[in-house]
Amino acid sequence: MRQIALYGKGGIGKSTTSANLSAAFSEMGLDVMQIGCDPKHDSTRMLMHGRWIPTVLEQMYDHKEIRSEDIIYQGFGNIRCVEAGGPEPGIGCAGRGIIATFQLLEKMQALYGDVVVYDVLGDVVCGGFAMPMRDGYAQEVYLVTSGELMSLYAANNICKAIARISERSSAKCRLGGVICNAKNMDNEQGLVEEFAKRIGSKLVCFIPRSNSVRAAEVNRMTVIEHDPASNQAKVYRDCAKIILENTDLRIPTPLALEELEELAREYL
Amino acid sequence: MGGCTLTGALSVACFIPGAVTVVHAPKGCAHQTFSMLHALMNEAETRIVPEILVSGLSDKDVIFGGEDCLRQALDRAAEKKPELIIVVTSCVPETIGDDCLAVCREHPYAERTLYIPTSGFLGGSAKDGENAALIGLSALAEPADPVPGTVGIIGEKNLESEVEENFAEVQRLLDLLGLTVSVRFCRNAAVSDLRKLGTVSCFILRDGRCADAGRELSRRFSRPVVSGFPRGLSGSVSFLQETGKACGLSAEKIESAVLQETKYQKKMLERFANLAGSRVCLGAEPFEGTLTAAREALACLDMTESPNGINVRLPFYLPVGVSGTVKMLYLWRRAILHG
Lengths: 268, 339
Fold this sequence. Notes:
The structure holds two protein chains of two kinds.
Chain A: E1 2-8, H1 14-27, E2 32-37, H2 56-62, H3 68-71, E3 73-74, E4 80-83, H4 94-107, E5 115-120, H5 127-130, E6 140-145, H6 149-166, E7 174-181, H7 188-198, E8 203-207, H8 211-218, H9 223-226, H10 231-245, H11 257-266
Parallel strand pairs in A: 1-5, 1-6, 2-4, 2-5, 6-7, 7-8
Antiparallel strand pairs in A: 3-4
Helix pairs in contact in A: 1-10, 6-11
Chain B: H1 5-13, E1 19-24, H2 27-43, E2 52-54, H3 59-64, H4 67-79, E3 84-89, H5 91-96, H6 100-106, E4 113-116, H7 126-138, E5 150-154, H8 163-177, E6 180-185, H9 191-194, E7 202-205, H10 211-221, E8 225-226, H11 232-246, H12 251-270, E9 279-282, H13 290-300, E10 304-305, E11 310-312, H14 321-338
Parallel strand pairs in B: 1-2, 1-3, 3-4, 5-6, 5-7, 7-8, 9-10, 9-11
Helix pairs in contact in B: 1-2, 1-7, 7-10, 8-11, 8-14, 11-12, 11-13, 11-14
C-alpha cells in the first residue's frame, strides 16, 4: 500500500491536486482512499460530486458504535472518501481532531487499498497535523507550492517537520518531491525547481494554471472526470504516474529564511 | 504544597462558605488535585466538604472547544443558588483557547460568577494559583475609606496545620496594639466578609508565598502591607513595630505594646528555665528562617548549640510568634529531659 500525503500552504490547491491525483490513480485500476485532514472538510467534495460527507469527528461522537459506512463514502471511480473534520474556526483543537481520527481509522482497520492519499491542512501548525507523517501513515510527502514566497515558506516549514520526524529511528516518513501548482508568475517553474533542488529534492510535477480546473469545480467534479480529454487532465495523470514510479524518497534539508528570501529575489 | 495552579487556587477558593467552585478541566485533573487537598485536609483535621463541580472536559470538547462544557457546569452550579461561583481552569482550556471569561460574563449567573484564570501548569505552580485566587477574589471588594484600627489577614494557608493557633497568636499581638481583624482573606470567610477587604487600614500577609497578591492588593487599595506573620521572639516585637507603624499608631502606643510583649516573652521563657546550660544539636531546617528563630530561643535560655549535643527537632513550619517558639521548646524539653 502506498501512503502519500500532500502538504502545503492553505489555498494553494492541495485538495484539487489530491482529488485529481486520486482520480488518476483510480483510472489506473488502483484501489484508492482519500482522507481529508482539514477541519474545513472539503478535500473529497469534487470526488463526491459536491456532497459534503459526514466527518469522522462528527460521527465518532454521535454514534455509540461507529461503523465504517458511517465515515467512508464511495466517490468517483470507487474512491473511498473520508473527511476528518474538526472544530469551527477559532475554537477547540483541530490537531487533536486529526490524532483522534487516525486512532479511530487504525482501530477500525480502515486504512487499506493500493494508494491512500492524505490531504493535510496547510502549515504543520501543531503536532496534530504532523500525525499523518508519524507512525508509518504518510510515508511519502509531496509539497504543493507555487512560486510565491509565502507558499515556499510554508513548504520549507513542512520540510523542517519531515526532517525532525525522520530523525526517529522508527520513522518511515520521507519527502517524495515538490509539486508546483502554478500561479502564472514569471520564472515560476525555475524558482520552484531550484527550491526543490536546494532542499535536497526534486520537482516532480508542474501543474499550469488552467480554466479547466475552474470549470470542473463549478460542475462539482475533478478535471479527470469533467474534462478527461483536456491537457490539464493529462498533467494530473502524468503526475500520478511519476508519483507511482517514484522511489527516490529523501530527508529534506530545509533552508534558512535568508536563503529562501535570496532565492525568491534571484527569480524575480 | 506542590502541584499546578489548580491545587493552589482550590486551596484558597474551597474555603469560602456559600461559594461553589467550578473546575473547568477534565475529570482527572480535578480528581488528582482534590485527592491532594483531601490528604492535606485530613492532616489538618479539616472537616469541611468543599463544593466543587468539574466541567469534565472530554476528548470531544478538546477538539470542538470546551466552552459549552463550561456553560453546562455553570448551569449546574447556578442551580445550587450559591452566593458566589468561582471558576478556575486547568491547562486544557488554556491550550485549546476556550474563552472562559466570555462564557462567565454571558452566563445568567454572571453577576455572582468570578473567573480566576489559573491555567493549570501553564499558569505556573501552586503558589501562583494561590496568588491568582487571592487577586481574583479581591475583585469582590471595592476600594473604600479605611476604617482605623482594622487589619486584613491575607493568604492564610487553609490546609496548614495549626492555622487557627497561628491566627490566635497574631490576634494576641494585634490586641496589644488595639487592632482588630475585620477580614481573613480567604479563611472560612463568607462572601460578605470578603467584600470588606477595601475597608481595612493595613494588610498582613501570612508569608512571602502570597507576596504577589500583597503587591496587587496594596496597589489596588492603596494600603500598606506587613510582609508576614511574626517569626519567633524578636520577630514578634518587630511585627508589633511594623504593624503599628503601618496602621498609623502613635509611637507611644507601639512602645507600650512592645513593653507588654517583652514582659510576656520573659514570663513564657521562665517556664523553660530548667533547660539552661543544655547542649543541643539542631536538626535540619525544613524552611528558611526556622534556624534563626531556634538559635534566638537557645540564646535567651542560655542553651548552647553543639554537634555533640542532644538532638532536637526543628518544627516543620516556621514558629509563629511566641506560641510557635513555646511549642518548639516543649518538644526540645521532652527530648532533653526524657530522651
